[in-house]
Amino acid sequence: MTSPTRIVVDRAAVGADVPRRLFGSFVEHMGRCVYDGIHSPGHSTADASGFRADVLELVRELGATVVRYPGGNFVSGYRWEDGVGPRDERPVRLDAAWHSTETNQVGLHEFAEWADAAGLEVMEAVNLGTRGVAEAADLLEYANHPAGTALSDRRRANGRDEPFGVRLWCLGNEMDGPWQIGHKTADEYGRLAAETARMMRFIDPGVELVAAGSSNHEMPTFGEWERTVLRHTAGLIDHISVHAYYEEDPADPASFLASGTALDRYISDVVDIIDEVGATTPDGGTIGISVDEWNVWNQTRWNEVDKPRVFTGDWPIAPRLIEDDYTVTDAVVVGSLLITLIRRSDRVSMANLAQLVNVIAPIRTEPGGGAAWRQSTFHPFALTAKAASGRVVLPRVEGATIDTARHGAVDAVDTVATVDADAVSVFLAHRDLHAPTEVELDLGPVEGVEAVVVTIPDGGDRHTTNSADAEPVAPAPLTVEVGADGILRFTLPALAWVRLTARLTD
User: Fold this and answer.
1) Which strand (E) or helix (H) includes residue 36?
2) Domain 19-387 in this protein, CATH class
3) pTM above 0.85, yes or no
4) Domain 5-11+391-504 has what CATH class?
């Protein structure tokens, strides 16, 4: 047992609103995310459009609010026109981004209908790699203009009488990365993004636009890329993107468990740049941060093992790509990253867990008509998305710390709270690998206390995963005692994530 942890939640010290878009996800035409993921016409649960009902049910259970589409790296070589019109007339193309064959059987119409069924707001990305201003404007007109033009009437002829009404648009994807099709310098991209944004606002002034920030915090151009892009796009965009993936170094699990600290520093650095540019660009307005790709991802295995094999083979349809099996440790890290995102709701306007199905995803499907199932990371996301609402409260924490090689000393218990009317939710990640801790939680007078924990299951270890055959990593009730003094007391196991909810009584 480590030293006790005392947490005080001052319900009066509320901060920023929790954006519902914080609980977004991502569907890219990559691997088995679309084909054999959400869309599988031969599956026993498939509807008339080929979409799997069992996957749709899990998506609804996950509680995502926004979905970014269709990429990702894929979008930088994508012709949106290929995905509209009669399916039997759509072209089959090579997808250079993922060395695959794209059949175009799912496009804007099909995906928008699926997203409606799932209760998801579509965040559409435009191709600024191989295409530009005109093509982005054409897509927007096709999607959002009511009628009476060639493109809007083409949409209507293709079966969608009313506009799609897409409000969120990404201006390209990771354009700073040399791996990106149509990779650009900051000036090249910033200028193109500005002119694309200007044209899109001419067509539909109500759109929200996301400029592409750095692909990750470690890019050699990080910082200067953001400054340059923001100087070009000031007054034209609403958000700038952050992409953040984390993986475990087997020799340093403590630093991996503290990935939320790294994400917080990344966000802080981007905030500083936004404010710096804003101070000299008065017409820039308020720029939010869209963490529109984030997750745990074993990039080392992808780059060193899987990628060379994939990019030297044939051109398969929907190959298995980066289908990571997530562990208990991964689930706790995902839960901690969610805590960071909520904590930074003052500047983070939205976020998208990448991806939704099969590709480094909380939901997996088995090929050949098999089952759909929940990964370990499904649970902290679903439980947080359901309960985090209202306004953020930053608890005061007194307790043990853990030393990390990358991030220094961090709190062993990472936590944040939200208050919505008389409902309070507290989220906790216990990052100590070895010992439990006794927690005293002061919320003031409450009733109806409920808590669930995701931790190492009986007979398992921190590397335990779920599969189509069994889901041992799942939420379990956590016993909470309410003392005569009103203090809540419970034990956090080593390596655990907890959601506690209660009703305020005064």
Assistant:
1) none
2) alpha beta
3) yes
4) mainly beta
